[in-house]
Amino acid sequence: MKRKRENGGSMINSHFAISEYHNVSEVYSGLDALISLPIRPVKREKLKGYMEYFEKKCSKSKEMINAAMNFIPGGVQHNLAFNYPFPLVFTKAEGAYLYDIDGNKYIDFIQAGGPTVIGSNNPVVREKAIEVINECGPSTGLFHEYELKIAEFICTHIPSVEMFRMLGSGTEAVMASIRVARLATGKKKIIKVGGAYHGWSDQMVYGMRIPGTGRFDAHGIPRSCTKHTQEVFPNDLKALERKLRWNKLRGGTAAVILEPIGPESGTRPVDFEYNAGVRELCTKYKALLIFDEVVTAFRIGLSGAQGYYNVMPDLTVFGKVVAGGYPAAGGLGGKKEYMSYLAAGLQGAKKRAMVGGTLSANPLSSAAGYHTLLEIEKTDACVKAGQAGDRLTKGLQKIIEKYNLPFVAYNQGSICHLETSATMFVRVNMKRPWTLPEALKQIKARKHMMEEMGAAYMAEGIVTVAGSRMYTSAADTDEVIDDALARFERVFQNIEPAN
Ligand SMILES: Cc1ncc(COP(=O)(O)O)c(C=O)c1O
């Protein structure tokens, strides 16, 4: 049974990872200053030392990646993996730590890209996963009790979700959400917030990472696929209303899709009131509101970012935490009236949104996800991970201040951002094509600095998300965070002086 507070928020958990909302204008003024300055990379002499680390201490990784280059494009298959100077090969994950094939130990701030709020390779979840595999193997193609358990848990805890359908990935779940929105509204246009990542389906490779870039990354995707995708600048309700009004005269908007903490996992933060403003506009223009909670559901809190902001979307996209780091992590939830378009089986009544997946909702993913969610609830993991994120961010801010650096650290609980080169904040204006070569040059230089920073952190024993983001987990004790801060300080002590 769904239990709700008067105001629509979930009463099951009022504990959230975010203890204090960041000062959005302060974050942006820091980022504006950072992007206006020349880059400040690690001193060349120090960088040479870091490169030696990879050559001397990571030889088995190097050898394996060189072999992989012959069989795997680029030698690596994860977009978040490090490529500079070469990717490392990891063999062991445990709580707050990762170990590479050469036996080096690292603090794990990638956390599998976000799913492991309780820490990597949690033993309770692992035991349950092994139990399921021993009993029925990872999949049967038929119903398993764990499907009901996880669906019931999600419907009970995420306030706007009455029904849930598990899918293979966040990308698939976004595709399903758009299909349902188009069926439910009879409209075609989808508005996304510029810079957001909603997976890699044809229609969503649009305005990725940097707002305003439209089809910049849509190589191999016909124009017709993105014909009905539009983007608006983040945190700008007026721009959104203009777009909705424009669409109203041309057949209307099926949905607005957004990441509630801001695009690219909150890299571009939004005002606390932004989501409520979008909700109002969606209602006014009869468009569905889709929250992409792939990163935030069960990380910001057990009731998701929607519980935190107390804003109820029509559809919620899930991923990552719903399988606890195990394969096939995705799902869509929402009101019955919309979810009924996803009825599977042979009895599908009304027009059906076609979704599928041989391995969707398999017993292994469902069991791993369910027990991960139970553990999160039992141990108050979202709050603990958030406290670790606060400690890390505050510590980084102090170090940045101590060495008088232009870098910017901010966080949404356990999602921590550390901008040193502000690559995603380079201004790209597609309407002024003559400015593009200079913008591309900037992006290239700033991206390379980000890679160097990532390599420096790695050589100091810290794995980050692409050198600019850290996911903390409940396994990050104060000691782990303080140790990480000492390592970050060793990098920040050695930054090139301003010219
Ligand atoms: C906000 C958001 N939406 C969707 C996706 C896509 O999910 P998946 O990688 O499971 O396809 C991601 C992945 O990082 C994401 O961060």
Describe the overall structure:
It is a single chain. With 499 residues, this protein is of the alpha/beta class. The protein has helices spanning 24-36, 44-57, 59-68, 123-136, 145-157, 170-185, 237-248, 263-266, 274-284, 304-309, 336-339, 363-379, 381-402, 436-459, 478-492, and strands spanning 90-94, 97-100, 105-108, 163-167, 189-193, 229-232, 253-258, 288-292, 315-319, 330-334, 408-412, 415-419, 462-463, 469-471. Strands 4-10-9-8-7-5-6 form a 7-stranded mixed beta sheet, with helices on both faces. The longest helix is centred in the C-terminal third of the chain and has 24 residues, at 436-459. The protein is globular, with a radius of gyration of 22 Å. Pyridoxal-5'-phosphate is lined by residues 169-171, 174, 197-199, 259, 265, 292, 294-295, 319, 329-330.
Beta-strand percentage range = 5-15%
- Ligands, deduplicated: pyridoxal-5'-phosphate
- Number of separate helices: 15
How many strand elements? 14
Mean pLDDT: 94
Helix content: 25-40%
Gyration radius from CA atoms, angstroms: 22 Å
Question: Structural class of the helix and strand makeup?
Answer: alpha/beta
Give a quick account of the main beta sheet: strands, pairing sense, barrel closure: 7 strands, mixed
Termini separation (Å)? Answer: 63 Å
**What is the succession of H and E elements?**
HHHEEEHHEHEEHEHHEHEEHHHEEHEEH
Shape: globular
Lateral strand order in the biggest sheet? 4-10-9-8-7-5-6
Residue windows where pLDDT falls under 50 for at least 5 positions: 1-13
